[in-house]
Amino acid sequence: MKTKPKKILAWHWAKADLKTQHSNEPIAKGKTLKATGPLQLCENGMHASLNPMDALQYAPGPMLCRVELSGEIIQGEDKLCASSRKVLWIANAEHMLQEFACLCAERALKAAKVDDPRSWRAIEVKRLWLAGKATDAELAAARDAAWDAARDAAWAAAWGAARAAAWAAARAAAWGAAWGAAWGAEIKWQRATLAKLIKRLPEYRRDAK
User: Fold this and answer.
1) Assigned fold of 2-92
2) How far apart are CA 39 and CA 171, in angstroms?
3) Which of 3, 50, 68, 199 would suit a FRET pair with 88, their CA atoms being 20 to 30 Å apart?
4) What is the pTM (predicted TM-score) of this model?
């Protein structure tokens, strides 16, 4: 539904090149982008979400933006569409997302009661790789060993989060690891965990939360 003109703080994920998905406009701190034409969710307007986890499912890249929406605003189930979107701060969240992926994968392994050391070693090596203490070859070897330890599709999906070197692994973990009977509790945990990680980003501004 449409709301009265006001300002709303929200979250938006952008591509690594900091260009908008469709119009290829530059995204920068302090810059305001404006929509042209009638607003329509998923079709036209400046989109963002009130919760970073909701925004993550639409993420085209690892750049996290804290934004201020203004003007005409349409509110959907998990996202907003506005006539104006101002960027308050931007952070490259690639490493943060991969750490989030590791946390999701660990939680999935515990839930599945996986005790094969190759599976846990894969996550350990991933963290070493993120810290610059493991090579690409070591990460690939750990990944292959974990795949060898996998016995069914459910485990393969859980491992998919921690094995990938790309930021997209985080999104796969965030949504892939949560399906099941405990979805409500899982998504609550993921939202809280992602929020904590975001607060650790150097760019995070408490006055714009």
Assistant:
1) ADP-ribosylation fold (3.20.170)
2) 27
3) 3
4) 0.77
Which of 170, 117, 167, 168 minimizes the C-alpha distance to 146? 117
Q: CB neighbours (10 Å) of residue 176?
A: 19
The 10s digit of each residue's pLDDT in 38-71 is 999 999 999 999 999 999 999 999 999 999 999 9
Can you give the residue ranges of every domain in the chain?
2-92, 95-199
Residue 48's beta-bridge partner residues? 80
Question: Average pLDDT, stretch 122-151?
Answer: 84
Q: Identify the three-state secondary structure at position 58.
A: coil
Determine contact, residues 27/87, Cβ cutoff 8 Å.
yes
**Widest distance between CA atoms in the chain:** 56
CA dihedral 107, 113, 117, 123 (to 10 degrees): -10
Q: How far is CA 14 from CA 28, 33, 49, 57, 65, in A?
A: 11, 13, 13, 12, 7
CA distance 179 to 100: 17
